[in-house]
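Try this one yourself first.
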């Protein structure tokens, strides 16, 4: 009888230990994901502000070139062509210069010690 009680006590202790470890892993995962998501959100807000700046700067540049060339279409087309070239360059270098560094930064944040 004493052996059975000890086994029961050990199994209950093991269950408590496993439950505690599961809770710890959940909390650590939540902490890491909240850091990553808050960074992502802040970068998205900064990116949005940058996009607004770029949009209005592009309009300004397009209308400035339109005034110089005395042709509205040509001024705006030059700005659009510039963005088309930038887009092509970004497509060509996206894996090495964009995707890999972003992926590495996320992994680094995930395994960063507090």
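Now uncover the answer:
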């Amino acid at each position: 009888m004493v052996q059975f009680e000890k086994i029961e006590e050990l199994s209950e202790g093991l269950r408590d230990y496993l439950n505690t470890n599961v809770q710890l892993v959940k909390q650590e995962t939540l902490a890491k994901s909240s850091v990553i998501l808050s960074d992502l959100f802040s970068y998205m807000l900064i990116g949005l502000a940058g996009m607004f700046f770029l949009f209005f700067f592009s309009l300004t540049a397009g209308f400035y070139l339109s005034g110089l060339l005395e042709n509205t279409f040509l001024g705006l087309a030059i700005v659009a062509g510039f963005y088309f070239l930038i887009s092509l360059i970004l497509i060509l270098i996206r894996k090495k210069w964009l995707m890999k560094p972003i992926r590495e930064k996320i992994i680094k944040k995930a395994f960063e010690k507090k």
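Discussion: Residues 49 and 98 are 20 Å apart (CA to CA). The chain has one domain: 2-110.
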